[in-house]
Specification:
363 residues, alpha+beta, 3 domains, two-stranded antiparallel sheet, 8 helices
Length: 363
């Protein structure tokens, strides 16, 4: 008996009844009558090919009991060609463990297109929560799996990404600047899904941007911590209270007249009672350096460090083009001395080397 339609079943469970009628227990797709060339046959073959298991290799042993990359993450490379950003949080040991219940929450949803009589999947976006909080160990775990995915599905890019990964892993300042390196790696991987950049190169502008954001975040966290301690009723953490910390490891950038010449005492042991913005000098508690776009100081004079947007710069510099260390000018301080790679240990408000922005009396 001829059948007027071809019925493709999404499961193997079916009943064969009289009159050659198929009763499926799940979704079916009705397509036009069979011809010499089935419509969509090439599409179906490509889908089946993408899900084909690896060819069997006699004598090949498993590498160990390591957790495998979940299927829905592997598909981002196998089927989609890494066209969307995959946060490394989805490649850690913790996430890839067999017992992780989060796997089912990010699988694609299925929808039916009545105009074409086809089922299609709608990928759910991957959350970026926690991506910038990974430890180096977690990052290294994730990159081992990511390297394998790139080698399997994007072999032409494998060497370039290995250079990028090794640059971060072997950086001499990786430990002390880990948060900046992590943000740099995240930005490069995200941009690579949207732009044809070469990951094997070191991108100075991206590094400068993420470093500036990281330094600002550190200062904000310190200010927020100080404010929370003050609000809780405990003694307010101010510049004067740091004087009691007689053995701080912070580097002292100058010697103040009349102060004890203890090289271990921080520069914050002054009489100033609040933290000011090191861009414009505003001491208001609701004014945050991170969001400061001022072009003039609180006294009306032009800012000492500015962004030269006409030159395509994104970092504040002085008129001589020098970068300044924001940590040294903020509440957290900096202990790297003259070898600081974040910039000059000079006051961001006036350029003087004898004090930082918190102690500047020139505005």
């Amino acid at each position: 008996m001829a059948c007027s339609h071809f019925i493709f079943h999404t499961t193997v469970i079916c009943l064969y009844l009289q009159d050659v009628t198929y009763l499926s227990l799940c979704y079916t797709i009705i397509v036009p009558p069979l011809t010499s060339t089935l419509p969509g046959e090439l599409e179906l073959n490509s889908v089946l090919a993408s899900k084909k298991r690896p060819s069997r290799q006699p004598g090949l042993l498993a590498t160990g009991a390591a957790y495998l990359v979940p299927d829905h993450i592997r598909k981002k490379f196998a089927s989609d060609g890494w066209s969307v950003h995959v946060p490394l949080t989805f490649l850690t040991d913790a996430y890839c463990s067999h017992s992780n219940p989060d796997h089912s929450s990010v699988t694609d949803s299925i929808s039916f297109d009545s105009s074409s009589n086809k089922l299609f999947s709608i990928p759910k976006p991957l959350s970026r929560a926690g991506e910038l909080e990974l430890s180096f160990e977690e990052w290294d775990q994730s990159w081992r799996r990511l390297s394998s995915l790139i080698k399997d599905f994007l072999p032409s890019e494998y060497r370039a990404w290995c250079i990028h990964r090794d640059r971060i892993r072997d950086a001499t300042n990786r430990t002390e600047c880990w948060s900046t390196w992590l943000a740099y790696d995240t930005d490069i991987r995200h941009r690579a899904t949207q732009e044809a950049i070469d990951p094997s190169l070191f991108h100075d502008h991206i590094w400068n941007d993420v470093r500036e954001r990281d330094l600002e975040n550190r200062v904000l966290k310190r200010i927020s911590k100080d404010a929370s301690i003050s609000a809780s009723g405990k003694p307010k953490v101010s510049a004067s209270s740091f004087a009691s910390r007689q053995y701080s490891p912070r580097y002292t950038p100058y010697n103040r007249p009349g102060a004890a010449q203890d090289g271990n005492k921080p520069f914050r042991s002054s009489q100033r009672s609040s933290t000011r913005c090191f861009i414009c000098g505003d001491p208001s508690p609701n004014h945050y350096t991170r969001y400061c776009n001022a072009t003039s100081l609180v006294n009306g004079k032009e800012c000492h460090i500015k962004i030269n947007r006409s030159a395509g710069d994104t970092i504040r510099r002085d008129i001589q083009g020098r970068r300044y260390c924001f940590a040294w000018n903020g509440a957290s301080g900096c202990d790297r001395g003259n070898n600081c790679f974040n910039g000059q240990h000079l006051c961001t408000l006036c350029g003087d080397s004898s004090h930082n922005a918190q102690l500047c009396a020139n505005i």
